[in-house]
Specification:
With about 90 residues, the chain is mainly alpha-helical. About 85% of the residues lie in helices and about 0% in strands. The chain is built from three helices and no strands. The longest helix is centred in the middle third of the chain and has 26 residues, at about 30-55.
Length: about 90
């Protein structure tokens, strides 16, 4: 059962990553692009977790944690820059 579900989930998450990347490139406004970037890193984390399960490797889970940390910091920095025009006060 898991041999059938994981490839389907990988295909669907890859499609979600592609659509998020398209919104990042073609977003009509800056907040739309920031939201697309946030969605892109969440989908990338899901993709890495699925690959880790599929390949039975713990390295992918560590990479997913690092991407989650960097994505959160990046989203906060971009939002702060958008609201105030300055990241470091």
């Amino acid at each position: 059962m898991l041999n059938m579900v994981i490839p389907m989930a990988l295909a669907l998450v890859t499609a979600a990553v592609t659509m998020s990347f398209w919104r990042l490139l073609k977003g009509p406004s800056v907040p739309d692009r920031i939201l697309a970037l946030d969605t892109l890193y969440v989908n990338t984390i899901a993709l890495l977790v699925l690959l880790g399960i599929h390949l039975a490797s713990a390295l992918f889970f560590e990479a997913a944690l690092l991407i989650a940390l960097m994505g959160f910091i990046g989203t906060v920095a971009l939002c702060k820059y958008l609201l105030r025009g300055d990241i470091i006060e």
